[in-house]
Specification:
Elements (H helix, E strand, L loop, with lengths): L1 E5 L2 E3 L5 E8 L8 E6 L6 E6 L6 E3 L7 E6 L4 E6 L8 E7 L2 E2 L3 E5 L2
Length: 111
Amino acid sequence: VQVVESGGGLVQPGGSLRLSCIASGLPFRANYIKWFRQAPGKEREFVADIDGSGSVWSYADFAKGRFTISIDIAKNMASLEMSSLKDDDSAVYYCNVLGFWGKGTLVTVSS
């Protein structure tokens, strides 16, 4: 089982990024895919999740209206589209599938 995140980088405030999560050895269809983030000195926090069919999802309050989670079942890939990014969104973003974590992808929002 391997979970791999990608798509992080440096972006200016107000900008956008699209993160991706690919899981091998785990069928997305049967699981929830969750995104978390952890900023330096802070606890890991929930960002968003989506069920394996792509029909049920939820967001943390800070993500509502700015972030969009989606899945591509054929590719076993989940995405997190982030827009109107703020400095506070800077963190390592992690994907979790059935309890398996990736190593994360770093998002830095800075001018």
